[in-house]
Protein backbone atom coordinates (compact mmCIF):
# COMPACT_ATOMS: atom_id res chain seq x y z
CA UNK A 1 0.00 0.00 0.00
CA UNK A 2 1.27 3.47 -0.81
CA UNK A 3 2.44 5.86 1.87
CA UNK A 4 3.63 9.45 1.65
CA UNK A 5 7.16 8.04 1.80
CA UNK A 6 6.65 5.45 -0.91
CA UNK A 7 4.23 6.46 -3.66
CA UNK A 8 3.23 3.58 -5.90
CA UNK A 9 4.91 4.98 -9.01
CA UNK A 10 8.15 6.26 -7.50
CA UNK A 11 11.14 4.14 -8.47
CA UNK A 12 14.64 4.46 -9.89
CA UNK A 13 14.19 3.77 -13.61
CA UNK A 14 17.93 3.20 -14.05
CA UNK A 15 17.66 0.06 -11.88
CA UNK A 16 14.99 -1.54 -14.06
CA UNK A 17 16.34 -4.15 -16.53
CA UNK A 18 15.88 -3.67 -20.26
CA UNK A 19 12.58 -5.29 -21.26
CA UNK A 20 12.93 -5.12 -25.04
CA UNK A 21 13.13 -8.92 -25.39
CA UNK A 22 10.39 -9.67 -22.89
CA UNK A 23 6.77 -10.71 -23.44
CA UNK A 24 4.02 -10.11 -20.88
CA UNK A 25 0.47 -11.34 -20.35
CA UNK A 26 -1.93 -9.04 -18.52
CA UNK A 27 -5.31 -10.13 -17.15
CA UNK A 28 -7.66 -7.24 -16.27
CA UNK A 29 -10.93 -7.32 -14.37
CA UNK A 30 -13.91 -5.46 -15.88
CA UNK A 31 -15.36 -4.68 -12.44
CA UNK A 32 -14.76 -0.97 -11.54
CA UNK A 33 -13.65 -0.26 -15.13
CA UNK A 34 -12.62 3.36 -14.49
CA UNK A 35 -10.01 2.05 -12.05
CA UNK A 36 -8.86 -1.08 -13.87
CA UNK A 37 -8.64 0.83 -17.18
CA UNK A 38 -6.31 3.35 -15.54
CA UNK A 39 -4.24 0.53 -14.00
CA UNK A 40 -3.92 -1.07 -17.43
CA UNK A 41 -2.92 2.21 -19.09
CA UNK A 42 -0.18 2.76 -16.51
CA UNK A 43 1.04 -0.81 -16.72
CA UNK A 44 1.29 -0.86 -20.52
CA UNK A 45 2.93 2.58 -20.67
CA UNK A 46 5.58 1.55 -18.15
CA UNK A 47 6.33 -1.76 -19.89
CA UNK A 48 6.77 0.13 -23.17
CA UNK A 49 8.86 2.80 -21.46
CA UNK A 50 11.33 0.06 -20.54
CA UNK A 51 11.46 -1.35 -24.05
CA UNK A 52 8.70 -3.96 -24.33
CA UNK A 53 7.23 -3.99 -27.82
CA UNK A 54 3.44 -3.37 -27.99
CA UNK A 55 2.96 -6.67 -29.85
CA UNK A 56 4.59 -8.47 -26.91
CA UNK A 57 1.99 -7.22 -24.43
CA UNK A 58 -1.10 -9.45 -24.54
CA UNK A 59 -4.18 -8.25 -22.65
CA UNK A 60 -7.19 -10.40 -21.73
CA UNK A 61 -10.22 -9.27 -19.73
CA UNK A 62 -12.28 -11.19 -17.17
CA UNK A 63 -15.66 -10.18 -15.64
CA UNK A 64 -14.51 -9.68 -12.04
CA UNK A 65 -11.49 -9.95 -9.80
CA UNK A 66 -12.35 -13.48 -8.70
CA UNK A 67 -11.88 -14.59 -12.32
CA UNK A 68 -8.32 -13.21 -12.32
CA UNK A 69 -7.22 -16.53 -10.80
CA UNK A 70 -8.51 -18.57 -13.73
CA UNK A 71 -7.28 -15.99 -16.23
CA UNK A 72 -3.77 -15.94 -14.82
CA UNK A 73 -3.65 -19.73 -14.68
CA UNK A 74 -4.66 -19.99 -18.33
CA UNK A 75 -2.05 -17.44 -19.37
CA UNK A 76 0.63 -19.36 -17.49
CA UNK A 77 -0.45 -22.62 -19.16
CA UNK A 78 -0.52 -20.88 -22.53
CA UNK A 79 3.22 -20.30 -22.25
CA UNK A 80 5.39 -17.81 -24.07
CA UNK A 81 5.33 -15.14 -21.37
CA UNK A 82 8.17 -13.91 -19.17
CA UNK A 83 5.62 -12.88 -16.53
CA UNK A 84 1.87 -12.54 -16.08
CA UNK A 85 0.29 -9.51 -14.38
CA UNK A 86 -3.19 -9.40 -12.87
CA UNK A 87 -5.01 -6.07 -12.46
CA UNK A 88 -8.20 -5.62 -10.49
CA UNK A 89 -10.02 -3.34 -8.05
CA UNK A 90 -12.12 -4.51 -5.14
CA UNK A 91 -13.92 -1.77 -3.22
CA UNK A 92 -15.36 -2.50 0.20
CA UNK A 93 -19.15 -2.55 0.13
CA UNK A 94 -21.89 -3.31 2.57
CA UNK A 95 -21.47 -7.07 2.32
CA UNK A 96 -18.78 -9.56 3.40
CA UNK A 97 -18.19 -10.20 -0.32
CA UNK A 98 -15.19 -7.83 -0.18
CA UNK A 99 -13.30 -10.03 2.27
CA UNK A 100 -14.14 -13.27 0.47
CA UNK A 101 -13.02 -11.91 -2.91
CA UNK A 102 -9.83 -10.33 -1.56
CA UNK A 103 -8.84 -13.48 0.31
CA UNK A 104 -9.79 -15.75 -2.57
CA UNK A 105 -7.83 -13.81 -5.16
CA UNK A 106 -4.82 -13.35 -2.89
CA UNK A 107 -4.61 -17.06 -2.08
CA UNK A 108 -5.35 -18.13 -5.65
CA UNK A 109 -2.68 -15.91 -7.19
CA UNK A 110 -0.16 -16.78 -4.46
CA UNK A 111 -0.71 -20.47 -5.24
CA UNK A 112 -0.18 -19.99 -8.98
CA UNK A 113 2.86 -17.82 -8.31
CA UNK A 114 4.46 -20.48 -6.15
CA UNK A 115 3.73 -23.34 -8.54
CA UNK A 116 4.36 -21.85 -11.97
CA UNK A 117 7.66 -21.41 -13.76
CA UNK A 118 7.04 -17.74 -14.45
CA UNK A 119 6.18 -15.00 -11.95
CA UNK A 120 2.61 -13.80 -11.50
CA UNK A 121 2.43 -10.18 -10.34
CA UNK A 122 -0.35 -9.14 -7.98
CA UNK A 123 -2.01 -5.90 -9.08
CA UNK A 124 -5.20 -6.03 -7.04
CA UNK A 125 -6.28 -2.79 -5.39
CA UNK A 126 -8.26 -3.48 -2.22
CA UNK A 127 -9.66 -0.23 -0.91
CA UNK A 128 -12.31 1.05 1.46
CA UNK A 129 -13.81 3.44 -1.09
CA UNK A 130 -13.64 4.72 -4.66
CA UNK A 131 -11.46 7.71 -3.73
CA UNK A 132 -8.72 5.45 -2.36
CA UNK A 133 -8.83 3.44 -5.57
CA UNK A 134 -8.61 6.60 -7.69
CA UNK A 135 -5.66 7.83 -5.63
CA UNK A 136 -3.78 4.62 -6.50
CA UNK A 137 -4.69 4.34 -10.17
CA UNK A 138 -3.14 7.49 -11.54
CA UNK A 139 -4.11 9.88 -8.72
CA UNK A 140 -2.13 11.52 -5.95
CA UNK A 141 -0.50 8.27 -4.80
CA UNK A 142 0.63 7.15 -8.25
CA UNK A 143 -0.50 4.15 -10.24
CA UNK A 144 -0.25 0.55 -9.07
CA UNK A 145 -0.26 -0.45 -12.75
CA UNK A 146 3.14 1.25 -13.16
CA UNK A 147 4.43 -0.53 -10.08
CA UNK A 148 3.27 -3.91 -11.36
CA UNK A 149 5.03 -3.35 -14.68
CA UNK A 150 8.33 -2.65 -12.91
CA UNK A 151 7.86 -5.66 -10.64
CA UNK A 152 7.08 -7.89 -13.65
CA UNK A 153 10.23 -6.78 -15.49
CA UNK A 154 12.41 -7.30 -12.41
CA UNK A 155 10.90 -10.71 -11.67
CA UNK A 156 11.19 -11.79 -15.33
CA UNK A 157 14.90 -10.97 -15.10
CA UNK A 158 15.14 -12.84 -11.79
C1 LIG B 1 -19.45 -9.73 -6.67
C2 LIG B 1 -18.38 -8.69 -6.67
C3 LIG B 1 -18.42 -7.63 -5.75
C4 LIG B 1 -19.49 -7.49 -4.71
N1 LIG B 1 -17.48 -6.67 -5.75
C5 LIG B 1 -16.46 -6.74 -6.66
C6 LIG B 1 -15.45 -5.74 -6.66
O1 LIG B 1 -15.44 -4.75 -5.91
N2 LIG B 1 -14.44 -5.89 -7.58
C7 LIG B 1 -14.38 -6.94 -8.46
O2 LIG B 1 -13.42 -7.02 -9.26
N3 LIG B 1 -15.34 -7.89 -8.47
C8 LIG B 1 -16.38 -7.81 -7.61
N4 LIG B 1 -17.35 -8.75 -7.60
C9 LIG B 1 -17.36 -9.80 -8.67
C10 LIG B 1 -16.50 -11.02 -8.35
O3 LIG B 1 -15.11 -10.73 -8.47
C11 LIG B 1 -16.81 -12.17 -9.34
O4 LIG B 1 -16.77 -11.68 -10.66
C12 LIG B 1 -18.18 -12.78 -9.10
O5 LIG B 1 -18.32 -13.19 -7.75
C13 LIG B 1 -18.43 -13.99 -10.04
O6 LIG B 1 -17.47 -15.02 -9.79
Largest sheet: 4 strands, parallel
Q: Hetero groups bound?
A: ligand DLZ
Number of strands: 6
Q: Looking at CATH, which topology would you report?
A: Rossmann fold
Please tell me the total number of domains. Answer: 1
Q: How much strand content do the residues show?
A: 15-25%
- At the fourth level of CATH, the homologous superfamily is Lumazine/riboflavin synthase
> Secondary-structure element sequence?
EHEHEHEHEEH
The portion of residues assigned to helices is 40-55%
Sequence of strands across the biggest β-sheet: 2-1-3-4
Instruction: Identify low-pLDDT runs.
Output: none
Distance separating the two termini: 23 Å
Supply the CATH class. Answer: Alpha Beta
Shape: globular
| Structural class category | alpha/beta
Annotated CATH architecture:
3-Layer(aba) Sandwich
Taking all Cα atoms into account, the compactness measure Rg is 15 Å
Tally the helices: what do you get? 5
Mean pLDDT: 93
EC number: 2.5.1.78
Function: Catalyzes the formation of 6,7-dimethyl-8-ribityllumazine by condensation of 5-amino-6-(D-ribitylamino)uracil with 3,4-dihydroxy-2-butanone 4-phosphate. This is the penultimate step in the biosynthesis of riboflavin.
Catalytic activity: (2S)-2-hydroxy-3-oxobutyl phosphate + 5-amino-6-(D-ribitylamino)uracil = 6,7-dimethyl-8-(1-D-ribityl)lumazine + phosphate + 2 H2O + H(+)
Pathway: Cofactor biosynthesis; riboflavin biosynthesis; riboflavin from 2-hydroxy-3-oxobutyl phosphate and 5-amino-6-(D-ribitylamino)uracil: step 1/2
Amino acid sequence: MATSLHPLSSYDASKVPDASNMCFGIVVSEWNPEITGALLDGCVATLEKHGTLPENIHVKTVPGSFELIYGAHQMVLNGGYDAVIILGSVIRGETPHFDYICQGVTQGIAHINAKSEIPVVFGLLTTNDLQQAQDRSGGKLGNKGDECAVVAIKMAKF
